[in-house]
Specification:
Elements: H1 3-16, E1 21-28, E2 31-38, H2 41-45, H3 50-67, E3 72-77, H4 80-102, E4 106-107, H5 113-123, E5 129-134, E6 141-146
Parallel strand pairs: 2-3
Antiparallel strand pairs: 1-2, 4-6, 5-6
Helix pairs in contact: 1-3, 4-5
Amino acid sequence: MNSETIKSITEEFLAAMGFEVAVEIFPQNECVEIRVVSQEADKLIGSGGRTLEDVRHILRALFRAQLQEKTFFTLDVNGYIRRKEELLRDLARVMAERVRRSKRALTLKPMSARERRVVHLELAGLPDIITESIGMEPERRLVVRPYP
C-alpha cells in the first residue's frame, strides 16, 4: 500500500472536481485514513454525507485501478465522519439504556451500512442487549432489543 500514491490520487481527483483541499494520510495496519480539509466542506460532504459517500466509492475504484490491489481506507472531510460516528455511538448507548428500562425493542431510522456497523460495534459488548439489521436498502434499519 503506497500512501503517497493514495494521497496523490485523492488530491488529483478532488482538484479535478474543483475543490481546493489539503490531504493528510495516516496508515493504520491494513487501512489508510484519509483526512481532507477544505473550505468547501459542505459541498464536498453533501446532504447527509451522500456526496462524501459517492466520492469514497469513486476513490475506491481509482485506487483499485491504479494500485492494482484492494485498498481499505476511511475518508473524512473536516472531521465530519469522526463527529458523526461519535454521535452514533452516543445514540447507541442512549438506545441501549432505553431498551434496558422499557424491556422493549427499539427500531432506529434507516442508516447506511457503515452507520449501522458503528452502532452494532458499540453495543456488541453488552451482555443484556442485542442488535439486528432488518429491511432492505435503502430503508434498512437497526433494531436494539433486550437479550432474551
